Amino acid sequence: QYEIEKLQEELAQLKQSSITSHVDIPSNEDTKSLQKIIEQQSEELKDLSEKYLVLSSQVELQNEINRQKNETEEQLKIYEDQIQHLIHEHENLVEELQKKTLSTIVTVDNECQTDDQQHDKLTQINMKLKRILQTFKDKIHRIVIEKPELFINISEDTSERLDHLISTIGHQATQINLLQTDHASTLAMYEEQLQTLIQERNALVDQQVLQSVDKQQESAELKQSLISQQDVDEDNQSLKEIIKQQSEELKDLNEKYFNLSSQFDSNINLQLEFHKEKKEMEERIINYENQIQNLIHERTNLLEEIKKITSSPVPTIDNEKQTTDKLLKINNKLKRILQIFKDKIHRLVTEKPDLFINIGEETSERLDHLIATVEYQATQIDLMQTERDQSEKQLQNQIQELQNSLDACRYQIENERPIKTEQLVNATPPSDDISRATIENYEKQIHQLQQKLSQNDDERTLLRERLNEVELEFRKTLDDRLSTTNMYEEQLQSLVQERDALVQQQVLQTTENQYEIEKLQEELAQLKQ
Questions:
Q1: Which of 65, 84, 433, 503 is deepest in the core (most CB within 10 A)?
Q2: Of 428 and 502, which is predicted with more confidence?
Q3: What secondary structure does DSSP assign to 120-160, as a single string?
Q4: Its pTM surpasses 0.85
């Protein structure tokens, strides 16, 4: 535009000079020079006209470029607005995602804390139940160790031992002796049960360790997700910086564009640079469109992630619920075992209230009293067994003494009878008062006495056989472990009564025999006289 104005001024000067030349009267030389000048100026004018046309075309091209530039700037502005809008929406979504994530993490932490509290509570209840159960087992195990003879053929199962202990208490009042047993198998079974409990405990410990490792892994995953979220924020920040840089580049390009637009002389270079810049702008526009698409895609992913975080539960809660359910099952199992113990002891208290006088209602106290009663009654039974053995031995000695005395009496009677009869016959003078029938009568009486002695021997033999049978039966009952204290007491009473009756009978028979012998001796003496 400036050159056009300059050319117009030169054209005006030429016109002014031509008017002045017409006013003056020129000479030929002046005319020729003027013609040359006019020709030169005509050529210059022609050149200027061509330049004007070129400049006009350049102006039109510049206007077109400006128009395209304006359109491009408007399009870039639209894209920038879209990018800013998407960035703002992305920031809102990221903020919402962080809030959702934080709220989810807080919810998960609260649920984890609640589950941890419930887990700790269940663990404490589990340990308490195990301690109570172990206390019962230790008490029963202690009585097993102290009195192994009370648990003959009883397995290591604590419930079975408690049943046997209650059964022993219920029948100990009627028993004399408790059975001998092999305690090694019981200890082995108890060790096996302890090993099972230890394995269960180790399994629980391992499970808790695995749960702790899972929780640590889940915590690491949550931290990783937070770190990745921070990475996303950093990416967004870097994207903002890139967009800012691109805005600055666009600003620089605009400045360059204005600088280039002022350079009309370099038309070809200007067009080349314009096409190049246009291509770069198109590429940037494509990049902007790609960024917009990426932001839209990222926005969609964030929305889906927010939806998943909002709707999907955390797997950790399910794992902890499974652990809690398992602990509840174990606690219920331990509670059932303890309740069985309590029910059995309560049943014994109901059936035998006289055994639990002045004893509290606590199961542990009742079990201690039960064990103490078993130990006391076991001691009493041992003492009764010792007394029974001593009485049996004493009875056998007395029977042996009676046997010896009876044998001596029989031997004495058998030896003295023919001697005294011969002495009586020899010493008796012939007399009419003593008849042969009287002597025969005495002989019959002596024979009857001998028969009575023989019968007494037979009865003594029968009694001895009976005693042996009773002893065999007693031994058999003891070996079979089926007899009770009452039966042994009754048998002992029966044996004592039989022994007393036998002793009394033997004493009476001996007294009668002695009396009859003395009477016969007196009668023989009278006959001799």
A1: 65
A2: 502
A3: HHHHHHHHHHHHHHHHHHHHHHHHHHH-GGGSTT--S-HHH
A4: no
